[in-house]
Design brief:
- Chain B: InterPro entries: Cyt_c_bgen_Ccs1/CcsB/ResB, ResB-like_domain.
- Chain B: Residues 36-503 form the ResB-like domain.
- The structure holds two protein chains of two kinds.
- Chain A is 76% helix and 0% strand.
- Chain A is mainly α.
- Chain A has two domains: 1-141, no CATH class; 147-302, no CATH class.
- The longest helix of chain A is centred in the middle third of the chain and has 38 residues, at 149-186.
- Chain B is elongated.
- In chain B, strand 14 and strand 15 (348-356) form a beta hairpin.
- The chains are: A mainly alpha, B alpha+beta.
- Chains A and B meet through helix 7, helix 8 and helix 9 of A and helix 3, helix 4, strand 8, strand 11 and strand 24 of B.
- The complex binds protoporphyrin IX containing FE.
- Protoporphyrin IX containing FE sits between chains B (34-36, 39, 103-104, 106-107, 110, 185, 189, 192, 467, 470-471, 501) and A (255, 258-259, 262).
């Protein structure tokens, strides 16, 4: 093959930049759809609705395309470095964006949740934008301590869990917005047309719940795999290193969410705040701990 | 979400007004402690309580042992207060323990009765159908020409084949499935207790230690030989694994080209070790590949340079010779360290300075350009006087106690010199010399013995399996009620009931209906969710 590491690395970058461009287009489409939906939310006119549905379908096609470009970027990156492509923060973010996009599309094939699209795409776009500007690191070998198959397993699980948690967080946030609007509407003070255009609160809550109970065992597995790796490399499976601590905090908040969902009086709105707290802890672990707190896990490569 | 709901238990509590030897209030406390709401609150508290430990430096966290001391120096007023609150040892503090102990008690109190109930429901038949089936989920009813007995038999056979537990009582079929969900949930919660047992075993019997060894140096597994040793309450310190080893050589290689120039690609410590009175064996310890001798494990966790120096005193006698550990300061291994010669006469000698493996001089002064030792140099200043080692207070080998030392000066300026390998620094006035003989490396080993970790691992695996079962499996019931229809044949009612928050698999009832030849239901009513 004429492809060497350098060309793979350049190809990867090309894919990633194209993914950004296509995601940006997808976001425009979705935003236009949302605008149309909002305009039509309290009118019965069918026409703007049909047009905005078409825009939304375009948005989804573009999202699929951008997802595939993102995938291409990740695979090419792996070929450039001859290893799994999640060895530094740039690559983590790339793969996490991929997981979030993939989780969204997987849910979209089962549930009518295109109203999420604009948010998911915005988050993914932001993540990819950060990746190429702030976090970029050239493809290369791993530092020796990362050179372990537990890296492959642990990080892969954490990233997949994170992607699905992202969908859960968006669903939860929209659920809160929509729920408030439904309450107000029954009290006769409905004004929020955006909220009114969203899927029913019950649907949103179900999607959130499904996403969370799917992601939670994966996250649990990621934490356990991390502990096994830590035992392998530092001689103790748990040492309250900041990264470990925040993984624990994330886990415990989500456990609180699952319990609140089974507690009379906490189900729904109150439980949702725990899920959002869990997601905030996950994000902080990803960005805050990597960039601001020093610990044994400082391999961010930035 | 009403406030009355929270207040309710108090209103019903009988214990407050009754006479002292009443168990009423205790029962009230217990009922509240083991309630789901308490579990949620305690979980949230546990998450919040864990946060300060990641923001303040911690005594028992491996990354930087000196961090607490540094923080105390930087914040002299705040630090004592934080210390009193346990902020430098969060995960061993009483308040952190209080939260998780309460949580575990709450959980046990919640889960044991649930286990009993599960056991009872597994031993008894699925419960009777509610009188009004029409209020249940997916209710359907229709009439058919088939005889009731035949319909009941078909439904029973179908549900059995679908792995439901089925009983037929009178004119109804009662079926239930998904008991494993409950089993998983209980296994999950109880394995948390086992997890804690495993952690406790490690914390009570095991130990952790750290030792830095220069190439050629030896180590015997005895407490006195550790740089840091953290025993547990019941560690048998006199009975550590009998073991000795020698660091033969420490190999490193760095990337010499490409975008990650200077990034390490390999660390490998070649060691010769002897277990008990056995033969000497050799092995290579690398990151992620510890040396394991009967569960006492040696992990390679760091490395650095140990310049070889010889110090002669004012009389010309050799008062020190050998490697001195210098601690790396940056990724290119600019390292600092001190050299002490307490035996020097007429005055004790000390040197302090930088080691640069590939020395260069930039606008900010000397720095290291590359982590490998391509052009090693030592930049030293010298001290004379009393090292302060005589008063019995243990001193770090990496710092100088300068209280009774005077810096050697020439013309009022500190005397300093840059040395390449082979060069010698001569102190003014014939107070002594230091020769830079060569460069060797040292390796840092983290040593750990944790007899509880297998328990923890098994508990974690059970926990994960239990959790997956608990979240993935849906426990549900199905009832079929058949009554003779007025004009012959049967009137059939079918309904389901989910015991979990998720809907039962949507096709289940439809399949049952098809099996007993009812109407084929419209596909659009199926609500699916990824399992
Ligand atoms: C040590 C702290 C605890 C942790 C980490 C924990 C974790 C979890 C998790 C992750 C779940 C989700 C699995 C599922 O929904 O089936 C769960 C479920 C459950 N937990 Fe806990 N739990 C703890 C303490 C408790 C306590 C104190 C109680 C009782 C008050 C409790 C009662 C339950 C119940 C009843 C469920 C099933 C909920 C349902 O049916 O959806 N747990 N627990």
């Amino acid at each position: 093959m004429i492809f060497n590491e350098q060309t793979w690395a350049e190809l990867s970058n090309g894919f990633v930049y194209s993914a950004i461009a296509v995601y940006a287009l997808a976001m425009l489409m979705y935003a236009a759809e949302t605008a149309g939906r909002v305009a039509g939310a309290d009118t019965v006119a069918a026409r703007p609705h049909a047009r905005s549905a078409l825009l939304g379908a375009f948005g989804t096609s573009l999202t699929v395309l951008a997802f595939l470009l993102n995938l291409g970027g990740v695979v090419a990156r792996g070929l450039a470095a001859s290893r799994v492509p999640w060895g530094n923060m740039y690559e983590f973010v790339l793969v996490c964006a991929l997981a979030a996009g993939g989780a969204y599309l997987a849910f979209l094939s089962k549930r009518p949740i295109r109203a999420f699209g604009v948010w998911i795409v915005a988050i993914v776009l932001l993540a990819l934008g950060l990746a190429v500007t702030v976090l970029y690191a050239p493809a290369g070998e791993l530092v020796p301590v990362l050179n372990s198959y537990w890296l492959v397993i642990h990080v892969a699980a954490a990233i997949v869990g994170g992607g699905v948690f992202t969908v859960g967080a968006v669903a939860t946030g929209l659920f809160l917005v929509r729920r408030r609007q439904e309450r107000r509407m029954s009290a006769g003070v409905a004004r929020d047309r955006y909220a009114a255009s969203l899927p029913a609160a019950q649907t949103l809550e179900q999607v959130a719940h499904t996403a969370h109970i799917f992601a939670f065992p994966i996250w649990t597995f990621a934490v356990i795999a991390g502990a096994i790796w830590a035992e392998n490399s530092w001689g103790r499976y748990w040492g309250w290193d900041p990264k470990e601590t925040w993984a624990f905090i994330t886990w415990v908040f989500y456990a609180a969410y699952l319990h609140a969902q089974s507690t009379a009086g906490w189900r729904g709105v109150r439980a949702s705040w725990f899920a959002l707290a869990g997601y905030a802890a996950f994000l902080f672990n990803f960005f805050g701990v990597n960039l601001w707190i020093t610990g044994l896990h400082s391999y961010a490569g930035v | 979400m009403t406030e009355t709901e929270i207040a309710k238990p108090e209103e019903t509590s009988a214990g407050r007004t009754s006479t002292p030897p009443s168990w009423g209030w205790l029962r009230w406390v217990w009922r509240n402690l083991t309630s789901m709401r308490t579990a949620v609150i305690l979980l949230a508290l546990l998450a919040l309580a864990a946060i300060p430990g990641s923001l303040f430096p911690q005594r028992n966290v491996a990354s930087d042992p000196a961090a607490v001391m540094q923080y105390t120096q930087d914040h002299p007023r705040l630090a004592p207060w934080l210390d009193r609150l346990g902020m430098f040892d969060v995960y061993a503090s009483p308040w952190f323990a209080a939260v998780y102990v309460l949580l575990l008690v709450s959980m046990t109190g919640c889960v044991l009765p649930r286990s009993r109930r599960l056991w009872q429901s597994v031993r008894s038949a699925p419960p009777a159908a509610p009188r009004n089936l029409a209020r249940m989920e997916d209710h359907q009813s229709w009439e058919t020409a088939d005889e009731p007995a035949q319909v009941l038999a078909t439904a029973t056979a179908h549900l059995r084949r679908k792995r439901f537990r089925v009983v037929t009582e009178g004119n109804e079929v009662r079926a239930e499935r998904g008991y494993l969900r409950e089993v998983g949930n209980l296994a999950f919660h109880l394995s948390l207790l086992a997890l804690l047992v495993g952690i406790a075993a490690g914390k009570l019997i095991g130990f952790e230690g750290r030792v830095a060894i220069a190439e050629g140096g030896t180590f015997a597994n005895d407490r006195s030989q550790y740089d840091a040793f953290t025993p547990s309450a019941w560690t048998d310190i006199d009975d550590l694994e009998p073991l000795s080893f020698r660091l033969e050589e420490f190999d490193v290689s760095y990337q010499t080209s490409g975008p990650n120039l200077g990034q390490p690609s390999e660390f490998a410590a070649r060691v010769a070790y002897r277990s008990g009175s056995g033969e000497e064996r050799s092995t290579t310890v690398k990151p992620n590949h510890p040396l394991n001798v009967n569960e006492t494990k040696f992990f390679l966790t760091g490395n650095g340079y140990a310049p070889l120096v010889t110090v002669r005193d004012g009389r010309g006698e050799v008062v020190f010779t050998g490697p001195v550990l210098f601690l790396p300061l940056d990724g290119n291994y600019a390292s600092d360290g001190v050299i002490k010669a307490p035996d020097a006469q007429p005055t004790q000698l000390a040197f302090e300075g930088l080691f640069l493996p590939t020395a260069d001089v930039g606008p900010q002064g000397p720095y290291s350009r590359f982590p490998d030792a391509l052009d090693p140099q030592l930049f030293l200043t010298a001290y004379t006087g009393d090292l302060g080692l005589g008063d019995g207070v243990p001193q770090s080998v990496f710092t100088l106690d300068k209280d009774q030392l005077t810096q050697v000066k020439v013309d009022g300026q500190p005397f300093s010199q840059a040395l390449s390998v082979g060069e010698t620094m001569r102190l003014p006035g014939g107070q002594g010399t230091l020769t830079f003989d060569g460069v060797s490396r040292f390796a840092n080993f983290q040593v750990a013995y944790d007899p509880g970790k297998e328990i923890t691992l098994v508990a974690a695996i059970v926990m994960l399996m239990g959790l997956t079962a608990s979240l993935g499996i849906r426990r549900r019931r199905i009832w079929v009620r058949v009554t003779p229809a007025d004009g012959g044949g049967s009137r059939i009612e079918v309904a389901g009931y989910s015991l979990t928050r998720r809907e039962p698999p949507p096709a289940e009832i439809a399949d049952l209906v098809t099996a007993i030849r009812g109407p084929v239901i419209d596909a659009s009513t199926s609500k699916d969710s990824p399992a």
